[in-house]
């Protein structure tokens, strides 16, 4: 029964579905061809590992009793592009078993190589475009097959948002003294507008959701800025942000706004959509009851959304925090170096989610309510 239902679901029923399957097939062929795209690379040498032989293994122990093994490999690599195409070379690869700084290589893997003095060749890293293309193809296939038109709109939204973010980054790099907070906040507003327009359409529901999202995000950012000003930003080590080449505080606020925007938009969408459904099912409902319905939805999801944000933050910092702890650093120092800024951004997003519950509920109750029905 399940197989029959699956076949019926996947069977193309229109020209649009046929074109969708053709597009998925072309993308799959493109994934396969990335395995043979080495001649397209001009700046780096690409080689494939023909064989890998382990020469020696040495145990190392540091002052904190962390044990690791240093291993030496001899790789036979066939060059796939450039003037030395077809040539086979031997390259040494020294790596640690923990894989913290480098990795072992296996036959069949493709690598990026670099010329050193004379004819010596060193390894830059593994060529992973096939893996990235495969993951992208799986994602696109699932979206199109399972969600069809909404999935296509989701892909379009993601591509447009990537383009907007790229434009913002280019402006930040090329325009002197540009206000980073206003720039990326403006881009965030455009991204939210594009996402909600494609997901909900141009209607009252979209306008209410967008208004609630932006209002909650802006208020949360204002609260955070006021608190940081009153506390003189004590405990926030902005200079520890990675790869910062300009004032870190505006970058931090811009990051916080963009991070909060998505979660707040999710909460607002759920609340407003539910209130519209309740309004359609019960046209005679009062504004007060419609507002209470929105609050009920918001209270049930805000804990889960905040937890999701916290888990995402933990996953980003877990590996580096564990490395700090294993090397004799205290919990306080580890948290200060790796976690404080991310925790503050999570708190800002959490404030925005909490604010979104009454704001989205109130706006939807007021504007979605059927005014022709007596209170």
Automatic annotation (TrEMBL):
Entry keywords, A to Z: Membrane, Transmembrane, Transmembrane helix
Extent of the signal sequence: none
Record has rRNA-binding as a keyword: no
Highest rank taxon of the organism: Bacteria
Regions crossing the membrane: 18-36, 131-149, 155-173, 180-202, 208-230, 301-325, 346-368
Protein name: YibE/F family protein
Source organism: Periweissella fabaria
């Amino acid at each position: 029964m399940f197989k029959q239902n699956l076949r019926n679901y996947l069977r193309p029923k229109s020209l649009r579905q046929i074109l969708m399957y053709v597009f998925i097939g072309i993308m799959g062929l493109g994934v396969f061809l990335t395995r043979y795209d080495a001649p397209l690379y001009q700046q780096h040498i690409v080689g494939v590992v023909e064989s890998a032989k382990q020469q020696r293994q040495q145990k190392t122990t540091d002052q904190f009793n962390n044990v690791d093994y240093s291993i030496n490999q001899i790789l036979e690599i066939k060059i796939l592009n450039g003037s030395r195409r077809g040539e086979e070379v031997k390259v040494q690869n020294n790596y640690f078993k923990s894989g913290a700084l480098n990795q072992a290589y296996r036959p069949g893997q493709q690598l990026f190589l670099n010329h050193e003095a004379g004819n010596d060749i060193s390894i830059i890293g593994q060529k992973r475009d096939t893996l990235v293309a495969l993951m992208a193809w799986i994602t696109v296939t699932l979206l199109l097959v399972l969600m069809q038109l909404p999935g296509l709109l989701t892909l379009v939204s993601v591509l447009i948002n990537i383009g907007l973010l790229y434009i913002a980054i280019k402006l930040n790099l090329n325009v002197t003294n540009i206000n980073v907070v206003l720039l990326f906040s403006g881009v965030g507003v455009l991204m939210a507008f594009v996402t909600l327009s494609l997901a909900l359409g141009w209607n009252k529901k979209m306008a209410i959701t967008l208004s609630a999202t932006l209002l909650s995000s802006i208020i949360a950012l204002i609260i955070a800025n006021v608190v940081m000003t009153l506390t003189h930003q004590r405990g926030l080590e902005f200079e520890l942000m990675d790869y910062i080449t300009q004032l870190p505080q505006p970058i931090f606020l811009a990051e916080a706004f963009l991070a909060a925007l998505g979660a707040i938009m999710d909460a607002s969408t759920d609340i407003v959509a539910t209130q519209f459904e309740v309004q359609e099912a019960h046209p005679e409902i009062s504004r007060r009851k419609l507002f209470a319905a929105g609050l009920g939805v918001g209270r049930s999801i805000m804990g889960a959304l905040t937890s999701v944000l916290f888990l995402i933050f933990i996953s980003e910092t877990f590996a580096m925090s564990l490395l700090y702890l294993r090397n004799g650093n205290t919990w306080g120092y580890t948290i200060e170096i790796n976690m404080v800024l991310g925790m503050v951004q999570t708190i800002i997003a959490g404030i925005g989610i909490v604010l979104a519950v009454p704001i989205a509920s109130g706006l939807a109750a007021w504007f979605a309510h059927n005014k022709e029905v007596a209170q």
